[in-house]
Design brief:
single chain; about 90 residues; alpha+beta; Alpha-Beta Plaits; 4-stranded antiparallel β-sheet; 4 strands; about 40% strand; globular; UPF0250_YbeD-like; YbeD-like_sf; UPF0250 protein IFT62_22000
Length: about 90
């Protein structure tokens, strides 16, 4: 590996403080719908929950931390959130 290449950090599971950022269309209940979906798959640290709207109000970002148990769990959360149609990005 050269100096210009960056190696992705290896995540060790379980990870008790895994951050997730969800970006989607602003709408009534966006945060509640996101939490409902994530809670199907993981324990959410509600103290870490933050919500912010874009400057024009079109998009909302929800940030939270979960207890991540593995790659399959993260894939399932991402897939279900993206399938809603109102979530554009999961980081």
């Amino acid at each position: 590996m050269t100096d210009s290449e960056v190696k992705a950090p290896k995540i060790e599971f379980p990870c008790a403080d895994y951050p997730i950022k969800i970006i989607g269309d602003t709408g009534v209940g966006f945060k509640d719908k996101v939490i409902e979906i994530v809670e199907k798959h993981a324990t959410v640290d509600m103290k870490s929950l933050a919500e912010r709207q874009s400057s024009n109000g079109k998009y909302t970002t929800v940030q939270l931390h979960i207890i991540a148990t593995g790659q399959d769990q993260l894939y399932d959360i991402n897939s279900e959130l993206r399938a809603t149609g109102f979530v554009h990005m999961v980081l």
